[in-house]
């Protein structure tokens, strides 16, 4: 077994918080408001200033210690400052950091490892192109790859999707408010419905049939409107959209449509991938082999910026320099990424994430059985969403309810996040190294927060 046990990674005694935010945090938040960009958003939801972190625990500048149930939005799958990963990263950083795309042992080892764990028949038959530091860069590369190979320009994406903030990635993203100030974006992008049985009030089979019918018509119908399709872009489980797990049959149906149309199926694994769902990739849960997958977030091991596009070798038709980027040779991040995969393998964290995720979902379902505000619990592994509604069963007015839960959790030492088009989904993304004991303590606090917020709302507070 490589590296320490998951039980050795954390600060002792978490959570341990006083009155928050403390004075040092308040001072730093005020300074940030004065000199940082107006685009800063995360501290508006959780007013905290970090100082250090270990495993699934974070300490702020005032000495308050929290349990981390969002892991940098799915970045820190093997925890903060994992010693096995940090050791390799520091060793590499002392020797060589930036290499563009010249070969290094770390680069080639990571490529081989990604090929070995690639989903389905992509394993053993893939190529990897590293991009810039963000998931958006990987999406941009996948768009270029699809267009280059098909000579088409039409892209199919899905409602409720999030793929990034650069121009092409934003074109695939569904959020109109997010995109509106920056239009026009890419032309010929069609957003089909994503099967979301809870909000669509449909049974799973009907939701899948309706979604696939729209995609099939768009791509294959001679009057479907998309003249030159180049690819289908989909999240295996929607992340920002609310941890929406599609029913079985959806991804396999997209696979069939893509094959018939002779266009690539691109699966965005940026948030769902690298063990988050209890499998290496979200698509593994559906026994579907994509032509292309995008990855970032957890790829850099312990938060180092790195993205990659993994695709079938038959699509490797680019000539030299046809896709480029200065920051595609971040060697410490590649070393850290390799080490994080090794740590997950050695500690059997895929199976552990599946079991721990089921425990967390079961705790939430127990609350939901007697709580009219908690309407749906879903997810895979440690990719978990709990959707809330208001007193009338409406999802559109429950965002402040989840914000209240988030605030109560913060005040009691657990950091959680939100998702969903209305901010009405409690999103839990703890590191895969969260211990059973930490999960129990954290869920006690989360459950208490849900019940307290529910009681206040029911009383009209």
UniProtKB/TrEMBL annotation:
TM helices/strands, residue ranges: none
Gene3D superfamilies xref list: Aspartate Aminotransferase, domain 1 (3.90.1150.10), Type I PLP-dependent aspartate aminotransferase-like (Major domain) (3.40.640.10)
Cofactor entry: pyridoxal 5'-phosphate
GO MF, any single term: transaminase activity
PROSITE patterns with a match to the protein in the record: AA_TRANSFER_CLASS_3
InterPro entries, A to Z: Aminotrans_3, Aminotrans_3_PPA_site, Class-III_PLP-dep_AT, PyrdxlP-dep_Trfase, PyrdxlP-dep_Trfase_major, PyrdxlP-dep_Trfase_small
Signal peptide range in chain numbering: none
Family: Belongs to the class-III pyridoxal-phosphate-dependent aminotransferase family.
Organism: Haladaptatus litoreus
Pfam families: Aminotran_3
Protein's UniProt name: Diaminobutyrate-2-oxoglutarate transaminase
Key words, A-Z: Aminotransferase, Pyridoxal phosphate, Transferase
């Amino acid at each position: 077994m490589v590296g320490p046990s998951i039980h050795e990674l954390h600060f002792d005694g978490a959570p341990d918080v006083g009155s928050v935010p403390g004075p040092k945090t308040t001072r730093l938040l005020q300074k940030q408001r004065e000199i940082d960009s107006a685009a800063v958003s995360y501290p508006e939801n959780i007013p905290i200033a970090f100082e250090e972190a270990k495993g699934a625990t974070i300490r702020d500048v005032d000495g308050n210690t929290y349990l981390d149930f969002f892991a940098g939005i799915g970045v820190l799958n093997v925890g903060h400052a994992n010693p096995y990963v940090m050791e390799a990263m520091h060793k590499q950083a002392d020797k060589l950091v930036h290499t563009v795309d010249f070969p290094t042992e770390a680069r080639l080892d990571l490529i081989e490892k990604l090929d070995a764990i690639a989903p389905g028949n992509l394993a053993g038959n893939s190529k990897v192109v590293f991009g810039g530091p963000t998931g958006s860069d990987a999406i941009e590369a996948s768009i270029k790859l699809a267009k280059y190979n098909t000579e088409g320009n039409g892209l199919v994406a899905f409602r409720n999707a999030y793929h990034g903030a650069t121009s092409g990635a934003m074109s695939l993203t569904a959020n109109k408010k997010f995109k509106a100030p920056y239009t026009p974006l890419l032309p010929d992008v069609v957003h089909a419905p994503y099967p979301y049985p809870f909000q669509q009030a449909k049974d799973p089979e009907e939701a899948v049939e309706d979604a696939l019918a729209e995609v099939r018509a768009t791509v294959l119908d001679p009057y479907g409107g998309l003249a030159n399709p180049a690819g289908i872009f989909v999240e295996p489980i929607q992340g920002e959209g609310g941890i929406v797990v599609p029913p079985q049959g959806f991804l396999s149906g997209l696979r069939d449509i893509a094959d018939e149309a002779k266009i690539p199926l691109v699966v965005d694994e940026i948030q769902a991938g690298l063990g988050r769902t209890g499998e290496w990739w979200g698509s593994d849960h559906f026994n579907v082999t994509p032509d292309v997958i995008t990855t970032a977030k957890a790829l850099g091991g312990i938060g180092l910026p790195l993205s990659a596009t993994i695709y079938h070798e038959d699509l490797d038709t680019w000539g030299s320099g046809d896709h480029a980027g200065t920051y595609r040779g971040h060697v410490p991040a590649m070393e850290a990424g390799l080490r994080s995969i090794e740590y997950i393998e050695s500690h059997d964290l895929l199976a552990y994430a599946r079991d721990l995720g089921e425990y967390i979902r079961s705790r939430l379902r127990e609350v939901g059985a007697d709580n009219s505000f908690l309407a749906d619990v879903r997810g895979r592994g440690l990719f978990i969403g709990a959707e809330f509604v208001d007193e009338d069963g409406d999802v559109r007015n429950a965002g402040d309810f989840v914000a209240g839960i988030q605030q109560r959790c913060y005040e009691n030492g657990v950091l959680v996040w939100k998702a969903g088009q209305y901010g009405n989904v409690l999103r839990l993304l703890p590191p895969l190294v969260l211990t059973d004991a930490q999960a129990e303590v954290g869920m006690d606090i989360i459950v208490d927060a849900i019940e307290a917020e529910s009681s206040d709302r029911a009383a009209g507070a």
